[in-house]
Amino acid sequence: MNKCNKNEIFSHELPTTPLDPETQAKRDAKIQVAMIGFCGCWGCTLSFLDMDEVLISLLDKVNITRSSITDTKRIPGRMALGFIEGGIANSENIEVLEEYRENCDILISVGACAIWGGVPSMRNVIPLEECFREAYIDSETAVPNAKKTIPFHEDIPTITTKVIPLHEVVKIDYFIPGCPPDGATILKVLDDLINGREFDLPSAMNRYD
Amino acid sequence: MVKIIIDGKEVNAEVGDNILDAAAKNNVYIPSLCYVKGEKCLGTCRTCSVKVNGNIMAACTIPVSEGMNIEVNEPDVTDMRKALVELLFSEGNHNCPSCEKSGRCELQATGYEVDMMVSRFPYRFTPRQVDHSSKYVWLERDRCIFCQRCVDLVRDKETDQKIFSIKGRGTNARIEIDKTLADKMPAEQVRAASDLCPVGCIIDKSQGFDVPIGQRKFEIETIKERALKGSIDE
Lengths: 209, 234
Description:
Chain A is an alpha/beta fold and 209 residues long. Chain A is built from seven helices and seven strands, in the order H-E-H-H-E-E-E-H-E-H-H-E-E-H. Helices cover 31% and strands 17% of the residues of chain A. Chain A starts with 20 loop residues before the first helix and ends in a 15-residue tail after the last helix. With 234 residues, chain B is of the alpha+beta class. Chain B is globular. Chain B starts with a strand and ends in a 5-residue tail after the last helix. Chain A binds chain B through residues 109, 112, 115-119, 121-122, 124-126, 162, 164-165, 167-168, 175-177, 179, 201, 203-204, 206-209, and chain B through 89, 93-99, 102-103, 108, 111-113, 115-119, 122-123, 125-128, 213, 222.
């Protein structure tokens, strides 16, 4: 039974086989990093992968725990860095973001969506009801003859009236603008933070598009 | 020639120059968004605010005078200029990834120069009506910063009447276009008006995303480099 009193088991609640102690010790000695994408396109994560072969040397120093790449659903412990892309568009985003804030020493907002809402925030100037109507009732691509309904269920996260930036929900330590930022820009920031240097994004690397 | 002090350094300035131009000639960049070199000063955006003899003033509005003490890169006033740029970003809907002006937008380029990563003010997402009724000009009101460059400097060739105007006051203020006059604009004038707009509010309908990323105006030469050479609008 979970907290909602339903007979459900989440994947992270299932028993797991522990790693062999040597590998586990190696992983534990690294800098722990968690990543997540909220309302966005995952382009910033793709940009992260754009670091190409530098990723290999980076992974000697960091251990990526929860992320879209590892597909781990929960943060397993205290993290040094949280790397977040996407804006806040529903109640689940808020819960998860708060979990990240509680468990990460440093949180970084990555990309236009995380910083000010980005492309998804284009819906902010249109009333939410109209957005739902367009998506589910008057949709051009609706299945013919299907019952037209706006999805609503306690298990479906509630959509926020507006897409809002992360720093309007929790304190964010650093910002990397861009849509998406270049792999080189992300590397510059991560490399500085991992090696104990101050965050420094020169204006020549700053980009809003 | 008069002697002025910029950031503690005594330099020469030409009589009749405003502080913004005098500073540029002495290799000191002051960000600005409404000022067009050679045209009368508008003084609307205040982005060029500096300290003159201890008081904060818009550099484009003040002619230099003997012994003037100008502080440009003093931390408080630098942060104030940054705050002014951030205000513009949170007041309108400045969606750089979807804007045709990106890469040649003065607001965006100035944002980079003042080291803005995020606005300290809440983003407002004010709904603004786009006006695409005129034949050649797409008026994207989301992006207007009310600099009034177009209001003062874009005029009908025959009658010298204003083509653009600001209607309403305060939060109801909006940029308007005189459709009859706008439809008479020759192609070069439409392009010039679009280039004059420091943001992506006046868009030439015949021009889209025509320059690849990496080769756009302010990517080849930053706004600071252009301002110091005196060629932002070329």
